[in-house]
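Reviewer comment 2.1 asked that we show a complete input and output for one of the modelled complexes. We chose the DGJ case, as it is the one discussed in the main text.
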Amino acid sequence: MPITFNEAAKSFKLTAKDTTYVMQVAPGGYLAHTYFGKALPDDDLTYLLRLTEPPFTPETNDRDRSSYMDCLPLEYPCFGVGDYREHVFSIVDENGATAADLRYNSHKIYDGKPVLEGLPATFANDPSEAQTLEVTLEDKVAGLEATLIYTAFTNLDVITRSLIVKNAGTANVQLTRVYSACVDFDNDEMDMITLNGSWARERHPDRCRLRRGKQSVDSLKGEPGHQYNPFTALCSHNADEDSGEAYGFNFVYSGNFVSEAETTQFGRTRFVMGINPVDFGWLLEPGESFTAPEVVMVYSDSGLGKMSRTFHDLYRNNLIRGEYRDKRRPILINNWEATYFDFSTEKLVQIAEQASKLGIEMLVMDDGWFGHRDSDNSSLGDWFVYEKKLEGGLKALVDKVNSFGMKFGIWFEPEMISPDSELYRAHPDWAIQIKGRPLTMSREQYVLDYSRKDVRDYIYGMMRKILDSANIEYIKWDMNRQITEPASNALPKERQREIWHRYVLGVYDLMNRLTTDYPYILLENCSGGGARYDPGMLYFSPQIWCSDDTDAIERLKIQHGTSLCYPCSSMGAHVSDCPNHTVGRQTPFATRGHVAMVGTFGYELDVTRIPQEDRDAIPAQIEEFRKYNPLVRTGDHYRIGNMFEDNTWDAWEFVAKDKSEALLEFVQVLRRPNMHSRRIRLKGLDPDAYYYDESAPDKKYSGAALMHAGVIIPEQWGDFRSVIMHFIRA
Ligand code: DGJ
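Response of the prediction step:
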């Protein structure tokens, strides 16, 4: 049984594969946290609470309840009742007071995993995959009930958390902070890893030792943003890829977030994650409920590598949905870096015709096909065809592309409105704005008020007309600016602070309608590159554009960081032209292919104009991608090199689940003069099996030799060279 209740100790034990999580009802009715880590047989760990150690004894020293509250490890600590560490819940009650006090009321345990209304979340494919515990806490004074929802996955080291707050009283309550998770670790000797960056440098891992006080990453942009990702790992100081303890936390949410660790005065660490409370508010009238998004918690006793592989398995099987979840994605060619805004039907047809001859399977028409859009300063919101550019219309173009045996995909930026658009001229109040205050422009566009159903309906109506007008089989959903002047013309004064969350719910609503009505369409998310690379988006789209930086060497870092919690099968990655448009670097065509092969794979170049030598290489490159993609999509991913520690090389590996084959990819970033060739140790193989390198089948290596002695990588002449080796069980 993954979840049990010990009546005597009033403790709950959650077992997720080899992980144990224990909490209990402590004196006073508080829900205390006792343990999260490697599997234990015990279900009563009361001794860890040290309830008899003065001065914090609740039974004998109630005159010091505040001391008890300030050191008791808690599952869901509230503001204003003696716990001065970071709290996860606060309100403003009908009298304007801010304290809340949630204590145990009841619980239930059941098979499977509930759906979170209006929100993306991981799921159990059948009820035997997971068990759920709901613990209801109540604040009798405020009339609130908070039901904490924990799900333990049977075959994965994963526990998820979320909650539903209900106003069970008779007066209005304003929620001012509703985080989704809190874990109090009995330890402050840990490192914190976050994924930080900027446009074209997304998700670079950043690791530091926890220091006294609070350390966090967050967003107030209306989406997670390029700068920080809603992911954090806490790990032992000695944790590396293969050993040490690691706890990974990922927020299944695509809006403002906070992820924070606080070391406390008593040598503990409190970790919290949830919707950013800055400018957040939610009015709960009697009978109403608020659902907080999910946090995924992963435990690994074998380093960061195992943590990542657990996330990958969970997301590939229990988050990503749709027809393409388990399928190879079509090899696409996107015209963005080929033409930018300067294209026509003729140009796209030329690209498609040439591409189809080389084995490319889909043409994606990027930004610039609608309204009168010749640059990024107009037409967002005018989702009708720019006839001057697409002479003959969309259907004629799509039919032509289809006649080459290729699919057709299209770009939308549905959340945006250009001041120079018919839509804005007709509905200026549809932009998110504060009445009377000038709107802040970004990329010469505003954000549509997706908290409004009428706005969403209108945009969706236009999108449907386009989608129904031709055989469109792929959508790139882009989002190129962030929110300012956060207010809605449609919300009453007392609900204005709800705009941020309502916006995200609106985006989810539209994505849900789109993926339900057009289940055969492959949806790829994108936000100015990878500003919205989060599990919430993965629930709707099996792939996300990683970054606008398509340089193979920069991608090594971006893809390494992304793989900390997101599966390679979700990483939008293309072979692009040289010199690279972001960094001006020249890299071999083969290396660009090998790096893009880690992700969804495709091309982003003008195939009619690249050097003949590169064009000639495409069919074989595609063959190679097709051959290895099943392994990349379904296998276990191991990081071997780390460009952040040594930027002269990188390597990674994919191993089949049954360990029958492994693909090793190596990039010699900088050639070293006068050195022996490099030796690389593989990971994850069967030590007792024998393997051979497909390109030199006569030599057999034991799995043990490949993992402990390693293989020799042939030294390459020049920089930025890649080598791949395919090992097959003999
Ligand atoms: C940002 C995306 O990341 C690019 O790939 C491209 O689609 C542009 N937007 C188009 O405006």
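The chain has three domains: 3-318, 332-634, 649-729. We note this here for comparison with the apo prediction described in Section 3.2.
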